[in-house]
Amino acid sequence: MKKRLLSILFCLLTLVGLCSVTALAADQRVFDYSDVISAPDEALLEATIEALREETKLDWVILTVDDAGGRSSRQVADQFYLENGFGVGSDYSGALFLIDFDNGEIYISTCGKGIDYITDSRREAIFDQCFDEVVDGNYISAALTFLEEGEAYVEAGVPQDHYYVDEETGEVTQYRGGLSPFSVVLFAVVSAVIALIFRFGVTRGYSIKGNSYVYPFASKSNIALLNKNDVFQNKFVSTRRIPRSNNNGGGGFSGSSGGGGGSRVHHSGGRSFGGGGRKFR
């Protein structure tokens, strides 16, 4: 009897342990396959990301690889993000920072709202901040810089001139942000007030006392037929040039450090991704 109880207890403890490991794996966001980040630094990154996920409502992932398996840095980053189910919300919002020692490239992959916050010019600004750290082998500092700069851009909000450029079609789409709950309520109240004022004015203007009044339309009306000619006066055409940068990241847009601008997007696994990279060797 005691042996049976011990066996059951052992099974329960094993099950609890497996569940704990699964939970930890599900929450893991730092994947140092190149073994260039120490265990304490990994713990620091995990804690930083946990707080950042709660604050920004975006997912944040750090990845290092030695072997890209013949794939580009973009393919490694996008596929890893897809296959592990990262992202927050229905649009899988988040950003992944990759140090690819096989291709000699750092790469940032963005998805969902991550595309809006980390535009192409902002991504290049992040690379400007962390590039020397990667070259010098200070990989923990590079990862922390990515997280800190990413947080700052989320706090700054989506640039007013933000737009998307589809790599395959070249189509340019202007960003349209959603309204805040306060704005929705405010617009509803203002619309209701305007509607009431308009209704009151119309009702008052057309109110007639009694029911016997007949409008003398025959004497009050008049018809005048005039010739109508359409004359073409002038034509104005506005054009807009979208500059492209010559960086190694696969076609980002140039811009001021940390500015706004657009995001070049591509499609992978049925989702839209932004991102780009920079060679460090």
Compact description:
This protein is an alpha/beta fold and 281 residues long. The chain contains eight helices and eight strands; from the N terminus they run H-E-H-E-H-E-E-H-H-H-E-E-H-H-E-E.
Text of the CATH class of the domain at 27-176 and 244-279: Alpha Beta
Mean pLDDT: 79
The tally of beta strands, per DSSP, is 8
Major sheet details: 8 strands, mixed
Rg measurement, Å: 30 Å
State the CATH topology of the domain at 27-176 and 244-279: Diaminopimelate Epimerase, Chain A, domain 1
CATH architecture of the domain at 27-176 and 244-279: Roll
Helix content: 40-55%
Relative strand content: 15-25%
Distance, first to last CA:
66 Å
Structural class: alpha/beta
Which overall shape is indicated by the principal axes computed on the Cα atoms? elongated
Regions with little confidence, pLDDT below 50 for 5+ residues: 1-24, 179-187, 235-258
Could you state the order of secondary-structure elements as H and E?
HEHEHEEHHHEEHHEE
* Order of strands in the sheet with most strands: 1-2-3-4-8-7-5-6
Provide a count of the helices: 8
